[in-house]
Write a structure and sequence with these properties.
heterodimer, A: seven-stranded mixed sheet, 8 helices, B: alpha/beta, five-stranded parallel sheet, 15 helices, binds iron/sulfur cluster
Chain lengths: 213, 471
């Protein structure tokens, strides 16, 4: 999993509450055999004017010019600014996969749906909860200043404006913080016990050789 | 201290435990199929990892493979997405390796929970996992076997371990002789009818008692297969003579001096006489009759000689609503006699009931008779290529075909309707599979779960009928 330490990134705002995972990545794209490649279909129904299906050439589809991600000013964005209860609905892990594949590294919102919140950590996408008023202020900044950026520092647990004039603190579970800072996914954490696994396996092979034929 | 079978299996696989009880459990056998593995392999590739022990992997394509048109080869898979999943499994097997892979069209291909045991790739004392909830099937061999999700599939591939916590011990005792015409499927449904679909939640269930000991391995697999429908992630049966007899001489079973060593170890895979179970339920085998589900959950089940329940007799408001909703979906009126329910289709197959013994018991009922006129489609889908070949050698295929059944290629088929085999809206089916949820066998399809003999009898009669009556 990719590490998350400090990120200085362009912010893209989606001013809508209760955005569900079916909106983030519609169900027809779940038949895929990959965790990658969902980026072009992130918010498919809102982002394009036609109906999307897997296998279409997305570059040739008519785009919705009003949708925020289609605006030139948000090109190269890495920080997603959202309203409350972001990621509600189905448990599909494809939602964080799609956000990451698009290029997002962090989502800031006043609240998240539970499963989505956990799925973000599993995949190295940092979900940051800030107070409603703080998120409001950030939406205002985005609207007022094209090219508005934020600095997200996981070690310090802070979100600040690039000039340092404003700084908000956020909470994060110590275990998850440790995993993200070090780029450790569950597999990497288990592999810290690799020697124990190897020793266990060797003893088992000795005792029950037929299990290893 | 006295230990249960589950305690023994658990203790012999713990690599590491944290203070909160979260354990790393070593995995001996990892079964893989095309639907839940692609993202796991993709994840490995992205992270630059290799499987920890590819030799633990036994793989096959079963969930969305077609049951007809095999002569067309891979082109016989019409759905391009299903085909891509099958081809992706081929590719991943080439790239990452396995102990053995039975691809689509291979003569040993079949349902993942059928091919493991029949090849001796499932052995007593193992931990067995698969990205499929019916992995509980393998517990019939005195294994600790449970289903896992795609992220866990990747975790097991990369580390050979599962992160998990210990479950509770539960025992279901079935004592006495089973009545003639009553099978393991009826026992499984009767247990679920008694304890409910949440009855085993958080537990590993050991099935024990004289009725269980008298079951064949096929029967024990049917029973453990349904443990998940009783809410338990794992079901198991202690090892005995029947177990080792079944395994002797299978392709991956131990041989030579290792066989004796293995059998000596297997004999310890049983609960100690004074072991403690947190929950215990006892059923009297003699009282179990052939079962038929009437609703949209496996616990909605009654004996064949009874009637569909009347919601008005249910005092609990939530349950009453559940019954009412199920009756609407199933298109049934309260107090209808089960034997008055007429059928459109009959499906004999799935990892619950597609083994040779199941086909023999259905064929015995069908022999010399014809499928009723109102039954539009009656099909038999053997669990694997080997089961199919064995059945053909015994002439069972002729019996089915002569009676008007379709004799298909192996796979999951109409158990979950991921391929072309499915119910049309409103169609009613007698099925030997394990789930009667809304839409499971096709949108709007109505499923009644029964044993293979009961499904066969229903096909002949055109409606449910007590197989013991000779009808
Ligand atoms: S036969 Fe049905 S229950 Fe069994 S593995 Fe296939 S889909 Fe799952």
């Amino acid at each position: 999993m990719q590490k998350f330490t400090r990120l200085d990134g362009l912010v893209a705002p989606l001013d809508r509450a209760n955005v569900d995972t079916d909106a983030i990545i519609p169900k027809q794209f779940l038949k895929s055999i990959k965790r990658t490649g969902f980026g072009p279909n992130l918010f498919d129904a809102w982002r394009y004017l036609d109906h999307g299906e897997p296998g279409m050439d997305n570059a040739r589809r008519p785009i919705n010019p009003d949708f925020f991600l289609n605006q030139a000013r948000y090109k190269g964005t890495e920080i997603f600014l959202a309203r409350k209860n972001f990621g509600c609905g189905s448990s599909r892990e494809h939602a964080p996969w799609a956000l990451i594949d698009y290029g997002f590294r962090c989502v800031i919102a006043p609240s998240f749906a539970d499963i989505f919140f956990g799925n973000c950590y599993k995949n190295g996408l940092l979900p940051v909860v800030l107070a409603e008023a703080e998120v409001d202020a950030l939406f205002y900044d985005c609207a007022s200043f094209p090219g508005f950026r934020l600095v997200v520092d996981l070690e310090q647990q802070s979100v600040s404006t690039t000039d340092g004039s404003r700084r908000y603190r956020f909470e994060v579970d110590p275990f998850r913080k440790h995993s993200l800072l070090n780029g450790l996914d569950e597999i990497a954490l288990t592999l810290q016990h690799a020697d124990e696994i190897r020793a266990f396996e060797a003893a088992r092979r000795e005792q029950f050789p037929w299990l290893f034929r | 201290m006295a230990q249960t079978l589950y305690d023994k299996l658990w203790n012999s696989h713990v690599v590491h435990v944290d203070a909160d009880g979260t354990a790393l459990l070593y995995v001996d056998r990892h079964l893989v199929h095309e639907v839940t593995s692609p993202q796991a392999y993709d994840g490995l590739k992205l992270a630059g990892r290799k499987p920890w022990r590819a030799g633990s992997v036994v793989a096959t394509a079963d969930h969305n493979t077609p049951t007809t048109g095999w002569e067309q080869g891979i082109d016989g898979i019409r759905d391009p997405i299903a085909r891509l999943q099958v081809e992706t499994l081929d590719k991943n097997m080439r790239e990452f390796g396995a102990k053995v892979y039975f691809p689509f069209l291979d003569r040993r291909q079949g349902i993942v929970h059928v091919i493991g045991p029949e090849n001796g790739a499932t052995l007593p004392g193992m931990t067995v996992v698969c990205g499929d909830s019916h992995t509980s099937t393998h517990g019939a061999f005195g294994c600790l076997a449970h289903g896992i999700g795609t992220s866990e599939v990747e975790h097991v591939l990369a580390t050979q371990c599962l992160i998990t916590k210990k479950m509770k011990n539960m025992r279901v005792l079935v004592e006495g002789p089973l009545a003639r015409g009553v099978t393991a499927k009826d026992v499984a449904l009767a247990i679920i009818g008694r304890i409910g679909t949440a009855g085993g939640t958080g537990c590993a269930i050991e099935f024990a008692g004289s009725a269980i000991r008298s079951l064949s391995m096929e029967g024990r697999m049917t029973l453990c297969n349904m443990a998940i429908e009783a809410g338990a992630r794992a079901g198991m049966v202690a090892v005995d003579e029947t177990t080792s007899q079944y395994l002797r001489g299978r392709p991956f079973s131990p041989a030579g001096p290792e066989w004796d060593q293995a059998v000596a170890y297997w004999s310890m895979l049983r609960s100690d006489p004074d072991a403690k179970f947190e929950r215990e339920v006892t059923l009297e085998a003699r009282a179990i009759k052939p079962q038929v589900t009437w609703g949209t959950s496996p616990e909605m089940v009654v004996p064949v000689d009874e009637t569909v329940p009347d919601p008005d007799n249910e005092k609990d408001a939530v349950k009453r609503e559940g019954i009412e909703r199920a009756l609407v979906y199933m298109g049934l009126k309260p107090r209808t006699r089960i034997s008055d329910i007429r059928l459109d289709k009959v499906f004999i197959g799935s990892c619950t009931n597609s083994r040779i013994e199941d086909l023999r018991s259905a064929a015995a009922v069908v022999k010399g008779r014809r499928v009723a006129r109102n039954v539009r489609l009656a099909m038999v889908v053997p669990g694997s290529g080997l089961v199919k070949a064995q059945a053909e050698q015994e002439g069972l295929d002729r019996i089915f075909i002569d009676a008007g059944f379709e004799w298909r290629e192996p796979g999951c088929s109409m158990c979950l309707a991921m391929n072309a085999d499915r119910l049309e809206p409103g169609e009613r089916c007698a099925s030997t599979s394990n789930r009667n949820f809304e839409g499971r066998q096709g949108d709007g399809g109505r499923t009644h779960l029964v044993s293979p003999a009961m499904a066969a009898a229903a096909a002949i009669a055109g409606h449910f009928v007590d197989v013991r009556s000779g009808f």
